[in-house]
Design brief:
288 residues; alpha/beta; 10 helices; 10% strand; globular; Mitochondrial K+-H+ exchange-related-domain-containing protein; Mit_KHE1
Length: 288
């Protein structure tokens, strides 16, 4: 497999795992089979013109878009099975980390990976437990005619999602602990970031906790960072699409689109809050 570290803003980085071609002799796991079956079912519902399946898809896509991009990134990393652990320890399967050297110094790459792998670990464990607690409560909904027990299936999906994110984080921690990663700077990524038109949305206040500040105040390409103490976007949607084309990773496009949208939304809301507070403070001074 191959890991990508893709800075979205000066304080947030997307992790994405590319699964390389598996040997033809490798058997499909039951988890992979369930994922494929669910994806085919969902795709079939998306093709419908109307009906409850179409409504479920519309509401479902709305909810999926709001699942944090950090969770999606960890979910892209396969769980660490016993067979995979042995293969990686023997060195039969190299795990490459691809990153833009212009934004992420080599000395920071492993620290960023460690932060991404561990910062949400307790949250995923807690949410997983709450999903299991909530499942029995939704059972009466299944007694309703025609309509399936959507709350139950949603909690099942969220439980699986939190488990996959937790397992993905554990896999990365294993790779870091055993020094099984190969770090590869990417001129392709550097070129994409260098070609990003400025200015991009920014806010003078950081929108992350100190432990999540992945890039800190690193100088960004192009003009000077307008908010070195705050947060500035490093990608927009157009350049995100260019990145997926340059890397020849079409499956990355939806992950980048979601991450950019989420971070842009947070930055914009933070900026609006600051303007509102500033305006409120000015009004208070006038009344004094």
């Amino acid at each position: 497999m191959r890991l990508y570290l893709l800075p979205i803003s000066t304080r947030r980085t997307l992790l994405y795992c590319q699964k390389l071609d598996a040997p033809a002799t490798q058997k499909q796991t039951w988890g992979d089979w369930i994922q494929s079956k669910a994806a085919r079912t969902w795709s079939g519902w998306e093709q419908k013109e109307e009906g409850w399946q179409k409504k479920v898809v519309n509401y479902g896509n709305y909810a999926l878009r709001r699942i944090p991009y950090e969770e999606w990134g960890l979910k892209s990393v396969p769980p660490l099975s016993q067979r995979r652990k042995q293969v990686e320890l023997r060195g039969d399967e190299k795990v490459e980390v691809v990153y833009p050297k212009s934004l992420l110094p080599l000395g920071k790459v492993s620290k960023i990976l460690e932060t991404l792998a561990t910062e949400r670990e307790s949250l995923h464990k807690q949410r997983l437990v709450w999903c299991f607690v909530g499942m029995p409560i939704t059972i009466p909904v299944g007694l309703l005619p025609v309509v399936p027990n959507l709350p139950f299936f949603y909690l099942v999906y969220r439980a699986w999602s939190h488990w996959r994110a937790y397992a993905g984080g554990k896999h990365i921690q294993f790779l870091l602990k055993n020094n099984l990663l190969t770090y590869t700077p990417s001129p392709v990524l550097d070129a994409v970031y260098a070609g990003q038109k400025q200015p991009l949305p920014s806010t003078p206040e950081p929108t992350t906790s100190p432990s999540a500040e992945l890039l800190g105040n690193e100088k960004i390409p192009g003009p000077e960072n307008p908010n070195p103490e705050g947060e500035t976007m490093l990608l927009n949607q157009a350049n995100g699409r260019k990145m997926t084309q340059a890397l020849d990773l079409p499956q990355l496009e939806v992950e980048l689109e979601r991450a950019i949208w989420q971070v842009e939304t947070v930055v914009q809301l933070s900026k609006e809050d600051i303007v509102e507070e500033s305006s409120r403070g000015g009004d208070e001074k006038k009344t004094q």
